[in-house]
Specification:
7-stranded mixed sheet; 3-stranded antiparallel sheet; globular; lipid biosynthesis
């Protein structure tokens, strides 16, 4: 308001310099407001994904069941009929949408942290790949942004490669949530799906598996670089059965965006988490980020910390229809060594000291 009054008074006095000064002040205020709007859009874009991750499936299920009891029951019947016929689509790679993957909301999502994808080697379109993504963090935000959207340019950096981010199969039993996930190229992390993508979907497929899973999320905390990998060998066996190259991938900053209450081994809290992990497939975490309107309050919005996902050099894997345990152990050891090497090569570039060591559990 003051800048407008200043401009108006300048006109009355006929002083050109006063008008110019007032306009400069006005533009600076406009730019400030635009900057604030951009930041809020970034916050909202992140929050919508967090809420989708946490409650969209349950909310859609409840709404659909309620619809059965209303005058709109026919809509629910039609959708359930569609669901029956479409039940196995997620197991065949889903139904990705380039339009959804290129939504502007994902660019705001990327810029909030910000998130970036670093390519270290080319990938051949004549091969298939399994990316091991580390660490899980609380929600795997880097994995989602880099491989389920085009916000960081994954298709441009790896032309001819189709990324499929693998997540809990239970998510694809949730109405509407399954459609949302499939549109981004997300698929169930089970043997049927991975077998199909690596054997009946041609070449140039890259399946991203968050190897540490729920167990790794329980140790996620700022300042800690640890992965759950030493006894995780199923993904290596799958790679050998299909001759899919293994690609170690480390996401610096993934553990920095949320703070979590860590329950000690043997405590009642850890007991509950392990029971959920065993019978349901995920482990409930008590965590918090910042508030919607202020970084000084607690909330579900993650902290604005940089996340940099570095895709390492592929490890050539032979095709062995019946790999022995010795074969699996050999390539698993090679993978662990490659992951540690990748971490050591890039850690100082992203704010970690030279003395930082990747903890492999």
């Amino acid at each position: 308001m003051k800048t407008l009054i200043a401009a108006y008074s300048g006109v009355l006095r006929g002083t050109g310099s006063s008008i110019l000064s007032a306009l400069q002040d006005l533009f600076s205020v406009t730019w400030l407001n635009r900057s604030k709007v951009e930041k809020q859009l970034q916050v909202i874009s992140v929050l919508q994904w967090v809420l989708s991750f946490l409650v969209l499936g349950v909310a859609c299920s409840a709404i659909l069941m309620y619809t059965f009891c209303t005058d709109c029951w026919l809509i629910a019947v039609l959708y359930f009929t569609w669901l029956v016929f479409d039940w196995n689509t997620p197991k065949k790679g889903g139904r990705r949408s380039q339009w959804v993957r290129n939504w502007a909301v994902w660019r705001y999502f990327r810029d909030y942290f910000p998130i970036q994808l670093v390519k270290t080697h080319n990938l051949l379109t004549s091969r298939n790949y399994i990316f091991g993504y580390h660490p899980h963090g609380i929600m795997g935000l880097g994995a989602f942004c880099n491989f389920s959207t085009e916000a960081t340019g994954v298709s441009k950096k790896f032309p001819g490669i189709r990324p499929y981010l693998a997540t809990l199969a239970g998510n694809f039993r949730m109405p509407l949530l399954r459609e949302y996930l499939m549109s981004g190229g997300i698929c169930p992390v089970n043997r049927d799906t991975i077998d199909y993508l690596l054997s009946k979907n041609g070449s140039g497929n890259a399946i991203i598996i968050v190897v540490g899973g729920a167990a790794e999320s329980l140790s996620s905390m700022p300042g800690k670089n640890a992965v759950t990998l030493r006894n995780r060998k199923g993904f290596v066996k799958l790679a050998l059965r299909h001759g899919a190259d293994l690609v170690p991938t480390y996401s610096f900053g993934e553990n920095e965006v949320y703070k979590q209450v860590i329950f000690e081994e043997g405590s009642w809290g850890r007991w509950v988490q392990k029971k959920f992990q065993k019978y349901i497939g995920f482990a409930p975490c008590i965590f918090h980020g910042r508030g919607l309107f202020s970084s000084d309050t607690w909330g579900l919005v993650p902290y604005s910390k940089p996340i940099t996902t570095v895709v390492g050099e592929p490890i050539t894997i032979p095709k062995l229809e019946h790999p022995t345990q010795q074969d699996i152990d050999l390539y698993h050891a090679m993978y662990m060594e490659a992951l540690v090497k990748l971490f050591d090569q890039h850690k100082t570039k992203f704010g970690l000291p030279e003395t930082e060591v990747l903890e492999v559990n």
